[in-house]
């Protein structure tokens, strides 16, 4: 399965090995790992709220969109939810292609769309205060919009 | 009709999900939001700035003018901040 | 050391773990792995000729250039030479940053510059013929040129 | 002066490196290529299309008009195809 929505951590190396073992004439693999930052000690933990059933379906649609735009040999997306401590993994995007440009662009596209379309919400638990929901950022909307209407990135 | 709430929409309404009978004249997502706001101050609070609230019908993003006819599961939530 | 030029294979997972263990407020890691393709069975092996001392120095200069352009927490580049069979690793580029855009752009920049400036030459050993040196591709020059003069990518 | 050859430049000249005394009036990389070509058919062959040949002085890319003064190690090679 190309998409997993899970509480458990993931093993990026094992996922990458599985992708390579899947065959195809892979010349380039891009692995993006998103990690919980501590923001210089300000953050105690992130709490990721999720709508897992929709996340699964929505990310699968985004993966299909990526496959229709770039010649990809394989794609894998894992997104965690629940309580995540600084330094822990949040998200993994793996793209494999014959050539590097498709793998890079598809990975960026997937991340941009994940950020703005996948139903997850981050709440910050601060080291010395109550939790706050993270505000969506206009820059993420802009990043996703550069792929609109079949366009290539130009941001 | 099953309604789900996420993130601060859930915190403000005080519930994660509920099954409710929506009046027959509530035809769109936007009208459902208006009707929900009439149910009490916690809903008024959750949907005060209705324009920022996102909605999904049966796990697909929809706009506020989407029609409810045939919907099984409607979700309300703030803009996404995953990734 | 940020740059290694070596005959031996590398362990991308171990390199990534070392990068994360190095500290800093890492929120994004991009790992690019370049792999020898078989080209649908046409290729028996690649022979990578190298000028290792210059490759070390030139890639270190490219890494410094990337660090001056993007706020990177860490960078790691490994480029192999010698005989490499289909399915084997050729090159690893790892970039770590607080935010994903810097990590993605720096990794693409490093690969584009590696392709056109690092002193390596590929000779293809075919399954049923003599070896041929791979011709440099204009598309790689164009990819590198989009970063010229401090520019952002627009290709 | 130490001269290195790589890839098909090495194969055509038949050597990976050599130490040679270059005449004093050979002042630039381009002039060195011209002088090398006079050394025999293998060099004539290697440098026939001189414009495609890349050069590095002391492990830094240079153009053909770069001066040789002070150079310790000069390398000649085709366009790079690594990565």
Task: Explain what the structure shows.
The complex is a heterotetramer, with two copies of chain A (155 residues) and two copies of chain B (83 residues). By secondary structure, chain A is of the alpha+beta class. Chain A has one domain: Aldehyde Oxidoreductase, domain 3 (Alpha-Beta Complex). Helices cover 35% and strands 32% of the residues of chain A. Chain A has four helices and eight strands; from the N terminus they run E-H-E-E-H-E-E-E-H-E-E-H. Chain A has a four-stranded mixed beta sheet with strand order 1-4-6-2, with helices on both faces. In chain A, a hairpin with a 5-residue loop joins strand 7 and strand 8. In chain A, helix 2 packs antiparallel against helix 3 and helix 3 packs across helix 4. The longest helix of chain A has 18 residues. The radius of gyration of chain A is 16 Å and the shape is globular. Chain B contains three helices and five strands. Helix content of chain B is 27%, strand content 23%. The termini of chain B are far apart. Chain B is an alpha+beta fold. Chain B has a single domain, classed as Roll (Ubiquitin-like (UB roll)). Chain B has a five-stranded mixed beta sheet with strand order 2-1-5-3-4. The radius of gyration of chain B is 12 Å and the shape is globular. The model of chain B has no long low-confidence stretch (mean pLDDT 97). Chains in contact: A-B, A-C, C-D. Strand 2 of chain A pairs antiparallel with strand 2 of chain C.
């Amino acid at each position: 399965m190309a998409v997993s929505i899970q509480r458990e951590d993931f093993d990026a190396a094992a996922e990458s090995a599985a992708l390579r073992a899947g065959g195809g004439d892979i010349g380039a693999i891009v692995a993006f790992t998103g990690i919980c930052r501590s923001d210089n000690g300000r953050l105690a933990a992130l709490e990721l709220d999720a709508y897992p059933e929709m996340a699964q379906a929505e990310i699968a649609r985004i993966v299909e969109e990526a496959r229709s735009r770039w010649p990809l040999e394989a794609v894998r997306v894992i997104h965690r939810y629940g309580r995540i401590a600084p330094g822990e993994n949040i998200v993994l995007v793996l793209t494999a292609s014959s050539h590097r440009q498709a793998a890079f662009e598809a990975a960026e596209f997937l991340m941009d769309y994940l950020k703005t379309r996948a139903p997850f919400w981050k709440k910050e638990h601060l080291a010395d205060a109550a939790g706050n929901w993270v505000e969506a950022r206009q820059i993420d909307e802009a990043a996703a919009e550069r792929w609109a209407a079949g366009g290539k990135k130009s941001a | 009709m099953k309604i789900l709430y996420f993130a601060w929409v859930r915190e403000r309404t005080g519930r994660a999900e509920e099954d409710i009978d929506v009046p027959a004249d509530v035809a769109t997502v936007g009208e459902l939001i208006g009707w929900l706001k009439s149910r009490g101050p916690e809903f008024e609070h959750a949907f005060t700035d209705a324009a920022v609230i996102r909605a999904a019908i049966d796990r697909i993003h929809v706009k506020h003018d989407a029609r409810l006819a045939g919907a099984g599961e409607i979700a309300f939530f703030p803009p996404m901040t995953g990734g």
